[in-house]
Amino acid sequence: MHTILAIESSCDETSASVVSDGKIRSNIIATQDIHKQYGGVVPELASRAHEKNIVPVVQQALEKANITKQQLDAVAFTQGPGLLGALLIGNCFAKGMAMALNIPLIGVNHMEAHINAHFIAENKPEFPFLCLTVSGGHTQIVLVTDFGKFEILGETIDDAVGEAFDKTAKLLNLPYPGGPLIDKMAKNGNSKAFIFSIPEVPDFNFSFSGIKTSILYFIQKNTVQNPDFISENLADICASVQFTLVEILMRKLKKAAKQFHIKTIAIAGGVAANSELRKRIIEESEKNDWKYFIPDFEYCTDNAAMIAISAYYKYNNKDFVWLDAVPNARMAIGT
Ligand SMILES: Nc1ncnc2c1ncn2[C@@H]1O[C@H](COP(=O)(O)OP(=O)(O)OP(=O)(O)O)[C@@H](O)[C@H]1O
Ligand SMILES: [Mg+2]
């Protein structure tokens, strides 16, 4: 049996997880609440919070898994993409541990890990499959042909869909991160109450900056006429915006599935927690005879279990990094 400790510190979640032979034994996540006061992640504060959280989070992950440091066979960390200062904390901590315990070090790509979260469950997708990776910083349609073999078919040319959720929430005076709140409010709203146009973008790419601007103008115009417009229509606005954002995603996903003749479809990343997206994936799977894979909520937003499961496959391939490994804020998928 081999056991790996994995650390995730790419953004505003400090997380540690222990995996033994592909089975997740613990997944501890410390969310940094400090950013709520600023309406978004403040990189410098994220680094400091990681520095403070990392020792107790790792300790808890080991305790929950009921193992000692001496039982570890490797240490893994998120190498990129993400905030450089935040990545450095996890990177340096993992290096220190690997050096002290004299065990290998494994660097994991965060966006590949979001996709690899699908290999945590017993029921794993078969290759090839398409993964719609939707998070705070990325929106991609990825063709996955094997473990560690990824091809980006399309991606956003400007904002990520999670950003569109969060920025809309800000316009509606909802606290950060607003994505989950829009989802919650939308449950009591009419998704056809307001219509927002779908942008025309070639191939399998996405654009979310235009819709963000049209929502801004829509709110400004209506608030001039009625200062209580937002509070009186909050549920309908949330439902309509959510419907539009998910529609943009689904149109491109369906197009890619058709063109590449793929019937196994997965979603990953923080926005994969969205209830409208989950509902639409299930509906389209019935219509198109897709086999769909939706991760548990715990494995959608940032977590170290997805780093751990990625590290498990890398360990089997002896895919290690050296102690001079440095984080890469813009690390591309498949590199
Ligand atoms: N239920 C939900 N509905 C819509 N958006 C959601 C929901 N839950 C989380 N999100 C969004 O998911 C995003 C966070 O996801 P995640 O933690 O994967 O992103 P990130 O790590 O910041 O970005 P990346 O993984 O691209 O580096 C935020 O934008 C958040 O608003
Ligand atoms: Mg993420």
Brief overview:
The protein has 335 residues and is α/β, with parallel strands linked by helices. The chain has nine helices and ten strands.
Describe the fold and architecture.
The chain is α/β, with parallel strands linked by helices and 335 residues long. It has 2 domains: 3-115 and 300-316, Nucleotidyltransferase, domain 5 (2-Layer Sandwich), CATH 3.30.420; 124-294, ATPase, nucleotide binding domain (Nucleotidyltransferase, domain 5), CATH 3.30.420. Helix content is 42%, strand content 19%. Strands 3-2-1-4-5 form a 5-stranded mixed β-sheet, sandwiched between helices. A 5-stranded mixed β-sheet has the order 8-7-6-9-10, with helices on both faces. Helix 3 crosses helix 9. The two termini are 28 Å apart. The model has no long low-confidence stretch (mean pLDDT 96). Bound molecules: adenosine-5'-triphosphate and magnesium ion (MG).
Helix content: 40-55%
In the sheet with the most strands, the strands line up as 3-2-1-4-5
Report the sheet-strand fraction: 15-25%
Please name the fourth-level CATH homologous superfamily of the largest domain.
ATPase, nucleotide binding domain
Number of domains: 2
Mean of pLDDT: 96
Number of strands: 10
The biggest sheet amounts to: 5 strands, mixed
Q: Tell me, what's the shape?
A: globular
- Structure ligands: adenosine-5'-triphosphate, magnesium ion
Distance between the termini: 28 Å
Unreliable stretches, pLDDT < 50, 5 or more residues? none
CATH topology of the largest domain: Nucleotidyltransferase, domain 5
Specify the CATH class of the largest domain: Alpha Beta
What is the tally of helical segments?
9
Give the SSE string. EEEHEHEHEEEHHHHEHEH
CATH architecture descriptor name of the largest domain: 2-Layer Sandwich
**Computed structural class:** alpha/beta
Computed CA radius of gyration, to the nearest angstrom: 20 Å
